[in-house]
Amino acid sequence: MSAPPMRxxxxxxxxxxxxxxxxxxxxxxxxxxxxxxxxxxxxxxxDRVTATRAIIADFTAxxxxxVDLVTVNEDQFPSLIASSAxxxxxxxxxxxxxxxxxxxxxxxxxxxxxxxxxxxxxxxxQTFSARALELTSDDGKQLSVPSDGWGQxxxxxxxxxxxxxxxxxxxxxxxxxxxxTLNRNGVAGITAATAPGDVFTQxxxxxLALANNCQLTDDSGAVKLDSPECVExxxxxxxxxxxxxxxxxxxxxxxxxxxxxxxxxxxxxxxxILDELAGLRADAKPTCPQCQRDPAFLEEHSGFVTGIxxxxxxxxxxxxxxxxxxxxxxxxxxxxxxxxxxxxxxxYPRWFGMSPEGRFPVRKGxxxxxxxxxxxxxxxxxxVDVKKPLAEVYDDQVLADLRRSPxxxxxxxxxxxxxxxxxxxxxxxxxxxxxxxxxxxxxxxxAAAGRAKKDVEAIKAxxx
Length: 464
Hints:
Elements: H1 11-17, E1 36-41, H2 46-63, E2 66-71, H3 77-86, E3 93-97, H4 99-107, H5 113-123, H6 130-135, E4 137-138, E5 141-142, E6 145-151, E7 153-157, H7 158-164, H8 172-182, H9 199-211, H10 228-243, H11 252-260, E8 266-269, H12 273-277, H13 289-293, H14 297-300, E9 302-305, E10 318-327, H15 333-343, H16 348-352, E11 360-361, H17 372-378, E12 381-382, E13 388-389, H18 396-404, E14 409-410, H19 419-428, H20 430-439, H21 445-463
Parallel strand pairs: 1-2, 1-3, 10-14
Antiparallel strand pairs: 3-10, 4-5, 6-10, 6-11, 7-8, 7-9, 12-13
Helix pairs in contact: 1-3, 4-19, 5-15, 10-20, 10-21, 19-21, 20-21
C-alpha cells in the first residue's frame, strides 16, 4: 500500500441514515445458535482477500461456523451499510473500520456494544493496548474490538542531521531549527502534505497540532480551533511549509517522491513507507543519487520519530488510526463473538501479517504469553514485490518504538464524544482548507484558526 488507509464514514452515512427506520433493531435478532454469519471486510485488495479467506477457512474448520465474506470498497461502505440497515439486512460483523467509522456507526445505533465488550473481556482486557481500548470506547461502552493501528511518523535523514550537529527532531523547536538549517543546496528542510482537499493533509496537521495540545473541541463539545495552542500549530505548520519546504500543493505521492529522491531532510508520512523505503515495493523505490549504487542507502540513513511535543504540549503526541472488528446490532451474537475471538487469537498473526508495516497489533499477546503478538509482528514479512521481515531491515530500537506507538495514539474529538463531528469534518476538510490560507500567505495563523473554527461549528450544527 502506497498511502495511508483512510477508512472514513463521513457525512454520507450520517445523511443516509437520517430519518431511516433501522429494521435490524428490535426483536428480529437471529437465533444465536446459527452456524453461519455474514462478515463485511473493508480489505478489498486481491491478495489480502485471498489471505482473509484462508484464515476464515481455518475458523470454519475449527468451529463449524460458516462465514459469508463480503469485501466492500471503503468508498462504497457508507451507502451500503445505510441501505442494509434500512432493509434490516446488516452483516453480523464488520472489519477494518476506522475510529471515525466506529463512532458514526455507534451514533446511528448500529453496533452491539455488549457483544464487543464480551469479546474483549474473554480475550483479556489487559492483553490490549489501553489507549486502543480508550479510543474505541464511549461512556463506558466498548464500541468495537480494536485490532491494529498505524501512527504518523516524522522520517528524517540521520546523516544530514549528524553532519550538521542537529538533535533528533522531536519538538517544534528542533523541527524548525533543522528545517531552517538543512533547507539548502537543492534539499528542502521538510516536506509534508499541503493539498487542501486531501485527508492526508488533515492527518498530518492533526499530528502536529496534537503535539501542541491543540484540540478540536473541549469536553463540553465547544469547538476550540481558535485556542492559543491551535493558533500556534497553524503558525508552526505554515512557517515550515512557506519557508523551508517544496513550493506548490503537496500530497501523499509528491511528499514521498521528494524524500525518496534525496531532496528533503524530513518527511511526515505513515508507516506504510517502511517497506517502500527498504526497496520492497517495485513501483515506489528510493531514487536518490546514492540509492543508485546502494539501494539500502536511504533506509539505512533514515531515523523515525513517533511522538512530537510542541511548546504547549504536556507530553509527546502522535496521530494514530485504529482499525476495528465489530459485532453489529441484530447479529447472531454467539458465532459472531467466536469469529472475533479467532481473528484476535489463532488467526491474528496472519491478519496483521498481511501488511505489518501499517498494522501494529494492539492486542500485544495473551495472558500466558504477554508479548506473543508483538514478537510475531517483528517476524512478519513486509513488502509487495519482495517480502522480508521488518526485523531484517530495521534495528531493534526502531521496531520497539513502532510497537509501543499505539499506547500513545491521540485523535481529535473522539474521547470528547464527538465521533459524528470527526467523521463529518473528514468529509468536508475545513481545517486543511484554512491551513492552505496560511501556507499560501493569504492569511495569518489567527485568521486561519478562526476560519477553521467557524466552518467546523457550521458542520457541527448540521450533524447534531
